[in-house]
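Need tokens for this chain, all 268 residues.
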Amino acid sequence: MTKKGFVSLVGAGPGDPDLLTVRALRCLQKADVVVFDRLVSDAVMALVPAGVSRISVGKSRACHTLPQDQINELLVDLATPGRRVVRLKGGDPYIFGRGGEEALELRRNDIDFEVIPGITAAAGISCYAGIPLTHRGLSQGVHFVTGQLQHGDAAAIDWRCLAKPDTTLVIYMGLGNLPYICAELIAAGLDTSTPAAAIHRGTQATQQKVISTLAGLPVEVSRAGLRSPVATIVGQVVSLSEELDWFTNRGEPAIEDFDHESLDLARA
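Here are the structure tokens for all 268 residues:
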């Protein structure tokens, strides 16, 4: 009887390897092949055992190593001979990770799979930037939106729904469209002085943070030279960033000093 393959759709979190779940770590230790995205940090990839095949399918703005339909097919092809495949995604597989599309393709091809949640960028990066996504008196809810807007997507967005002064807005992958996004939110009624932040490589040793206002953020981000990946947070909660920033000067060992000897639990 031919051994069936298996695919684990695994959330790698926002970058700090300490934020991986125990389940995610165990999947990496047992993998035959790891298919990973551009947003998976080097520190997380360092946890993949030597000898395990690694396939990069990273995407950046207007530059895709593989189109999504070919990634879907690749997972099926890799698993069919009986391999244990880990599809490693930055953040969480089901939050702007296209994990649902890949899971549907696996199901249609009778490939068994599991989905391992990861700490999504919004939650991880905001915490490391000193920004609570909700806070009594400042924010009663959160919107997660993608900033990779095509012409049709931009016209379809209900900017008035997003421009709520008592709600936190987290924009994934919006660096290239940041001036447009800020202008649309202001036009929809959000005050120009609304606190706003842009964070590059949040949770990692190379984290950079720019704090400004909604009107001033595009200029400040350009002046700081921030590059993708960048998460943008808009809302009154950003005003707490300086006071609640525990990460910038925490005095702990650098992320690169992650203790690989602590993996005994994951290997068990």
